[in-house]
Automatic annotation (TrEMBL), chains A, B:
It holds the Pfam family SurE. Its cofactor is a divalent metal cation. It comes from Ravibacter arvi. Belongs to the SurE nucleotidase family. It is an enzyme of class 3 (hydrolase). Coiled coil: none annotated. A divalent metal cation binds at residues 14-15, 45, 102. Binds 1 divalent metal cation per subunit. This is 5'-nucleotidase SurE. The lineage of its organism: Bacteria, Pseudomonadati, Bacteroidota, Cytophagia, Cytophagales. Its EC number is 3.1.3.5. The gene is surE_1.
Length: 265, 265
């Protein structure tokens, strides 16, 4: 039990513990509570909900931040949340998990690939209010100042009100373009996907390799309620994301299939 | 355009291209269509929806199966689907993506960590009917024969009827216990999670490392409609899984928050 009344806030990310985004987030969170950082020791972008199963994990104390209990981990963002919850903070109740601030958008379909958001979703799986923050600017020296007030405001509201059970918040912030953000919009995830391109090259040993890149395709017909629309129009987007993946609306159709002695739901 | 009327079926997995599970699945799928395999060259269990961003990918032709166009890839299961869709089969329409048969359960919360299911979900993101098959037996020499008929039956139904847009099927099959499965049950994802244990050890250089393991905790109050219940009771479970993670039921509560000049949805 903590004798402090300040909330205990776990901070992690996927860009690694030395990135500018997590520095900004840690600085903001120390205004709101007692902060513990468990974050990857290397970039883990695109790691999705990966966990480390085939090899052991390393965890070391670091001294990067001010007045913060902090650790770097060899694993994925989800490993970090698991280590924090079940080892580092085993005997303390975590009040909030925040992940980010990611260098790059995690809106729409990107939520699936995002280590940042998977860490937040893992927090929600543990029953802890959890938020992933991402900036739509992937540069290492991205400008985060215009995001500060909104991040504090959203986090304060989450601490006061809690976050609906079974969901984590996916917060995306437009890149800085010399003016304040217009506001905050609660959204749904846009229907979008990537059309991958594979750049085939030959290594010095004569063997092929491929760089994966791609073009983002927004397939959403009714755009105004989506996170992509909000971001394109200068708003911060918040999408509550759930980890119950059941497509309930699909159950009726599949229940009509000829599956022999199948049972009704 | 294919001159054949047989469906084009892409097969992948997360245990690697030499595992027994994918051999079984390839053999079954050749009964139903023209099969192309793009699968990882190494075990990728627990990789979730990870993609390879920071390093290049390798893709090599293999000769493991009979009458099959087959490739091994250095990347994750989702990389395999992306390479298949946008490079190997760029000019051909894939009729079905099947992933597995996984050595180990991917029911309930395991769907988040599963490379097998993430490959299937990536197929669904691409608009292709997609199914992940998993056996609740993680042994390398697991017995798959009792699953054959049901896998053929479910796949035939998917080819005939399609799969509801926006979803992939998560099919889990009980471990073989000397008798046939009882039947097939359409289910929802059980509310469950892992309580991790970290086994701390010291390496020969005096430094700590951790093995992650854990205990499965089923938190679901009303169990009979869940995949866990079906599997425990000898049924094959099918859960349609969606990639729109929006927690629509949570939007109303968050819209009440004090977020300054926020907009309604």
């Amino acid at each position: 039990m903590s004798i402090s009344k300040r909330p205990l806030i776990l901070v992690t990310n996927d860009d690694g513990i030395t990135s500018l985004g997590i520095r900004t987030l840690v600085e903001l969170m120390t205004q709101l509570g007692d902060v513990v950082v468990v974050a990857p020791n290397s970039p883990q972008s695109g790691m999705g909900h990966a966990i480390t199963m085939g090899e052991p994990l390393r965890l070391y104390k670091t001294d990067i931040f001010v007045d913060v209990d902090e650790y770097e981990c060899s694993g994925t963002p989800v490993d970090c949340v698991k280590l924090a919850r079940h080892y580092v903070l085993k005997d303390r109740a975590i009040d909030l998990v925040v992940s980010g601030i990611n260098h790059g958008s995690n809106s729409s379909i990107n939520v699936l690939y995002s280590g940042t958001m998977s860490a937040a979703i893992e927090g929600a799986v543990e029953g802890i209010p959890s938020i992933g923050f991402s900036l739509c600017d992937f540069r290492e020296d991205a400008h985060f100042d215009h995001a500060r007030d909104a991040i504090l405001q959203i986090t304060r509201q989450a601490l006061e009100n809690g976050i609906p059970k079974g969901t984590a918040l996916n917060v995306n912030i437009p890149a800085f373009e010399g003016k304040p953000v217009k506001g905050i919009k609660i959204c749904r995830q846009a229907d979008a996907r990537w059309r991958e391109r594979f750049d085939k090259r030959v290594d010095p040993h004569g063997r092929n390799y491929f760089w994966m890149s791609g073009d983002f395709v927004n397939l959403d017909a009714e755009k105004a309620s989506t996170d992509e629309w909000a971001l394109e129009n200068g708003y911060i987007s918040i999408v509550p994301c759930q980890f119950d993946l059941t497509g309930y609306q699909a159950i009726a159709a599949i229940s009509q299939w000829n599956l022999g002695n199948s049972l009704p739901v």
